[in-house]
Design a protein that fits this description.
single chain; 108 residues; 3 helices; 0% strand; rod-shaped
């Protein structure tokens, strides 16, 4: 019964490969780790889709504001924004909420 060196080396390589495979599957980067990373990727993809929808909604809102000149002027007036090339004059006149200051009473 003579065992050739090739068969012994092949058996050692197969045993070492099997041990290495088991170590990898049970190590820190095991199959459970891959499942966890896949779950995180799916969660981030869902969050990304949500953010893309929000961006699209805000773009639509901005487009609507830009296309409606009356609304744009109202916003500029309320926020006191001045666009380049325009002049705005702010006049101080009495409003209903303001009352003139009462004269001070003389001291005795």
């Amino acid at each position: 019964m003579r065992v050739s060196i090739r068969k012994v080396i092949l058996a050692c390589v197969a045993l070492a490969g099997t041990a290495y495979g088991i170590t990898i599957l049970r190590g820190s980067h095991n199959l459970g780790g891959f499942a966890e990373k896949r779950r995180q990727i799916e969660q981030l993809e869902q969050e990304n889709e949500k953010l893309q929808r929000e961006i699209a909604a805000k773009r639509n809102h901005l487009t609507n504001l830009q296309q409606n000149p009356d609304l744009k002027l109202e916003i500029e007036r309320k926020l006191k924004l001045v666009t380049p090339g325009t002049k705005h004059f702010i006049l101080q006149d009495g409003t209903e909420g303001e009352k003139p200051a009462a004269p001070a009473e003389p001291r005795q």
